[in-house]
Predict the 3D structure of the following.
Amino acid sequence: MGEFQLVLLRRMADHQPELVTEALRALGATRAEAREAHRKWQARAHSRTHPGGVRRYRMVLGPPESESARRIGDVECRALRWKLPLWPDLRFEVLCAPQGGAVWNEWLVRAPGAPRPRLRDIADLTPWSCTVDDVAAAFPPAAMLEPDAPSRARLQVTGPAGERVVAHFTWGLLQYVDVGTGA
């Protein structure tokens, strides 16, 4: 599980190197170890012999903390969630096909029962403070934009004063906000 957290941090280092440095220190790991964990993860992801889909996550993270059926529009899927020590109020969620386990989405979400951050204004959107769902719930209607890279998401929202911004996420966790871009 510790190695998987390093995989997540490796991608977050692109936007929040200071926060990643603090997290690595808390995990007792180095940037080199994060790079190596990411390299291994990518090798597994592209291997013909290593299990794919949700089986890959089960092998690395063990049994999920929770697993449930979920309907999103007309589509039925399975939602699996794992607890990660680095983010106790969040869970790593994998949404996958009900048959075969093909992964459709993978990111950090708020843990059931964990309090949502108070997001009343665009200024409250600070790095690592919230997830995609947190922001979408605080500033409806929110619009998902095309991601700019794998493991990333972009959400366009309008603040209470009418300001349009784009919130950028890596693995579902807020990294930064483009103010005044609107797209």
Notes: The chain has a mean pLDDT of 91. The first helix runs from residue 2 to 12. The radius of gyration is 17 Å. The chain has five helices and eight strands.
